[in-house]
Amino acid sequence: MIIGIDKLGFYTPPYALDMETLAEARGVEPAKYTIGIGQTQMALVPITQDIVSMAANAAQTMLTEEDKSAIDMILFGTETGIDHSKSAAVYLQNLLGLSNRVRAAEIKHACYGATAALQLAKGHIMLNPDSKVLVIASDIAKYGLNSGGEPTQGAGAVAILVSANPKLISLDNATSFFTDDVMDFWRPTYAAYPYVDGKYSNEQYIRFFEQVWTDYKEKTGLDFKDYAALCFHLPYSKMGLKALKPLLEEEDAAVQDRLLARYQEGTIYNRLVGNIYTGSLFLSLISLLENSQSLSVGDRIGFFSYGSGAVGEFFSGQLVEGFQEHLNQEMHKDLLEQRQALSVEEYETMFADTIQVTDQEQDFTDRPDSSHFRLAGIKDHKRLYSASGNKLFK
Ligand code: COA
């Protein structure tokens, strides 16, 4: 049975900060952010967007009524949980009007959660070929003002519809994963921002890529020459290159040129959005598919997923007949281009505007946000969402 990615949806909030502007305010050479780290802008998240509303915005752009009735599982990958108990997937079932006969759960492992979800979805479709699974990757990456990780912040969601006979990519069965208990990045339940050893996390990312790539090669006999493109988890757009380049050195020039050119195409959107944790790998895939003129049916794409803590996985897929007809270039380019550029002062104000722990009702409906779904407020410690101005939630 052919199982894979049927559709991809993406959402990022309608505000952004230029990295050169941030660099100037922080007294840093702008080229460090734009070239050294490889980021041009970062997405800024208003109080009206959280992981649920972002996920709903990403999913609603791609789901037809037929898809909705076929979905019987929602797996929500995130490391920006809004509740220790209630799963974000349940809110989504309601907001998107999905059937109650759906299995819904949240999956956490840093930036790896959505890859775990994708693999579980594959198994579910194998047993239930007529089903579709909605996999979500939705996160807000906040390291803190003036922190080392500040230029690698971002926010956004990717929605992935997994099915048999997919319209975009068939996923190969072979996969290679590696888990090791390392403290490179973690966020204790009492902390607003993660603890991160930036340099160490870079090293672990590179080590995990070597591990899973070598293992995958041995298992499958596939090598770099067999790939049209590779997509990486991208905490910032330079990260994947640090892992890839040393291993590519022994390949012939044509293979190197091809993979490096596709790598750049797969980082165009990420450079404008920043880190979206679980969604970064899949945003890179969307960027590649929507910006490359060099991909053809049957081309194999490799994926490296990394979640600090840490888990790494390498897996592959092949582009299926007609994939070009199921992309949303215009919609995604508009989403990115129509964002409002904020000043550093406005960014810092938005950054500090967070949900209060209080018994009082909090109403965000007067805050500007053009997105379809938004967080309208909080009442009795329950989140209230709205769709284009209409309160939907109890
Ligand atoms: N022009 C061009 N490049 C410049 C530059 C300039 N003026 N100044 C610095 N750079 C380069 C550095 O040489 C370095 O490149 P390299 O990584 O290829 O050596 C890069 O910019 C970053 O500089 P560095 O001094 O290492 O930055 P930093 O100490 O501020 O840390 C991170 C960078 C990514 C580690 C930090 O932002 C972080 O902790 N991020 C969050 C964690 C993370 O994303 N981890 C990734 C694995 S999941």
Description of the molecule:
The chain is α+β, with helices and mostly antiparallel strands and 394 residues long. It has 13 helices and 18 strands. The strands form four sheets. It has a nine-stranded mixed beta sheet with strand order 5-4-6-7-1-8-13-12-11, sandwiched between helices. Helix 1 crosses helix 2, helix 3 packs across helix 5 and helix 7 crosses helix 8. The chain binds coenzyme A. Coenzyme A binds next to helix 2 and helix 7. The site of coenzyme A has 20 residues, from helix 2 and helix 7.
Please name the defining characteristics of this protein.
35% helix, 18 strands, four-stranded antiparallel sheet, binds coenzyme A, 394 residues, alpha+beta
How much beta, percentage-wise?
25-35%
Helix content: 25-40%
Count of β-strands = 18
What kind of sheet is the major sheet? 9 strands, mixed
How far do the termini sit from each other? 41 Å
By secondary-structure content and strand pairing, the structural class works out as alpha+beta
Taking all residues together, what is the mean pLDDT?
97
Count up the helices. Answer: 13
Silhouette = globular
Strand order of the largest sheet: 5-4-6-7-1-8-13-12-11
Unreliable segments of 5+ consecutive residues: none
Radius of gyration: 20 Å
Bound molecules: coenzyme A
Family: Belongs to the thiolase-like superfamily. HMG-CoA synthase family.
Domain Hydroxymethylglutaryl-coenzyme A synthase N-terminal: 3-164
Pfam families: HMG_CoA_synt_C, HMG_CoA_synt_N
Keywords: Acyltransferase, Transferase
